[in-house]
Amino acid sequence: MKHLTILCLVALCLFSSPCARAQTTASANQKLDAMITKGMADWKIPGLAAVVVKDGQVVFQKAYGVKNLETKAPVDENTLFNMGSTTKAVICIALGMLVDQGKLQWEDKVRKYLPAFQLSDPYITEEARVQDLLTHNLGIDQADLLWVVDSTSTEETLARFRFAEKAYPIRGGFIYNNLMYAVAGEVIRAASGQHWTTFVKENIFKPLEMTHTVAKAADLFKGGNYVTPYVDDIEDGLVTANYNLSDQIGAAGMIWSCGADIGHYLTFLVNGGVYKSDTLLKPATFRYLFEPHAFVNKESFYPTQNLTHPNWITYGLGWFQTDYRGVKLDFHTGSISGLIAIAGVMHDKKTAVYVFSNLDHAELRHAILYKAMDLYAFGDDSRDWHREIFDLYMGFRRQAAAGLKKQAAARVPNTKPSLDLKAYAGVYAHEMLGTVEVSVENDRLIIHFNHFLTLQAHHWHYDTFQSDKNNRYKDAIMVNFNLDQQGAVEEMEAFGERFRKTAR
Question: Which long-range contacts link 100-104 to residues 24+ away (Cβ below 8 Å)?
Fold first, then answer.
């Protein structure tokens, strides 16, 4: 028995040696790289960057593919991609720093810093705390159309946000809400005296040596090394998307970064708020970011739950949280106009993963996250995550294609508009979403939303029109007109909202 014990100890030492760990890491790297290469081909992804940090060290960092399909310029470690909603975790870190500095508390009322802050519900307005801005459970409905159909200042955007309706009692539900993070950005400004972009550059990017990361989307083009966004349209295939530079809600998802910089960021996350002996956040504050703060209903979670079968889902401060293989996983995706990201950290396993890509909803990101966690946190290569994720989302794509066919089949042929096209021209208004101007040109309706989004719409059937895809979002958008009892145009419906005609 004594000799057996000694042999076991020797074997344990061998497998724990730096050489053995290096071999294990090298094997994991090869397997992850092979899956990414196969996945990129199947998903038709132009460019991608992936990073894995284990035990405080970057163990995998690789750039794949091209920035632009025409120029074929390769993605490198410094190529900028949009972080999307993984930006939210950065905003929460910034607020945590202000907590550490004694400049705010999580439970402070929002109106302490922003006296003009106003929501549609007076009680929620007065009761809203700083932390409530970060957990998607304040009780106000989401209003992303504010930045989808307009481009104005943050102040004007948030002033209009007061018209967003109450959806449930305060802290009594979960509705993902980007606009609340725009408010959080303004709280950073009020508490620190700096615009949130300046604060994160000086207090997060600089100490983490994130030298290429851009906080303002409008500054993206100054450096030159950035990707082109793409959309895989069901009917038209891969098409170039427009850059989304909605800095008015920048704190919700407009930071751009690269593989090299993200490696430093993940190291900071795995090391509990410490980077190269520099403690950026107090341990208690760092842990608080990752505590569960809101329950998430399954309808608000990711379709990958069909494969991971979570027992619970919560939201921290800027992170979705769930169990995976019996261990807590904090993660978040980012998706905006042809660009995607995903970040994941498993603190108990000291493992973190990040993926960028320049293809809209390239869900290979989820496969990379779970495959990396399997390989580096659990030493397991048993699941073909690419195949499982690909099959799952291709099923959704087939459903979407069937929906388009159903829509086309439902079109009633040989109908005409109720009125002459000129009768639909005029100005339409929505108290929250602004103004729409409709004019007629070459038997089409030209529809301008706030001089920001322009649709060229042709007759579909009856009083419904459909835009072509030559617009900011590369999508065919349905627009319907309703008549009053006198047969005159009363309102226009688009994006599920009604705009009332104000001039005829």
Answer: 100/281, 100/282, 100/285, 103/191, 103/192, 104/130, 104/187, 104/191
Cβ neighbours around 496 below 10 Å, total: 7
Same domain, 383 and 427: no
Buried b / exposed e along 304-322 (16+ C-beta atoms within 10 A): beebbebeebbbbbbbbbb
- Determine the Cα–Cα distance for residues 92 and 180; give it in Å rounded to an integer: 12
Show which of 350, 367, 399 is a domain's final residue.
399
- Tokens representing 347 are 């603190």
The pLDDT tens digits of the residues spanning 284-303 come to: 999 999 999 999 999 999 99
* pLDDT score recorded for residue 7: 43
DSSP 261: H
The dihedral of CA 32, 37, 38, 41: what is its sign?
positive
How many structural domains is the chain composed of?
A: 2
- The SS3 assignment for 213 reads coil
CA atoms within 13 A on the CB side of 5: 2
Judge if 27 and 150 occupy the same domain: yes
With cut-offs at 50, 70 and 90, classify the pLDDT of residue 16: low
pLDDT-based confidence at 21, cuts 50/70/90?
A: confident
What pLDDT, on a 0 to 100 scale, did the predictor assign at position 22? Answer: 78
In 271-417, which residue ranges form alpha helices assigned H by DSSP? Answer: 283-289, 305-308, 364-372, 385-410
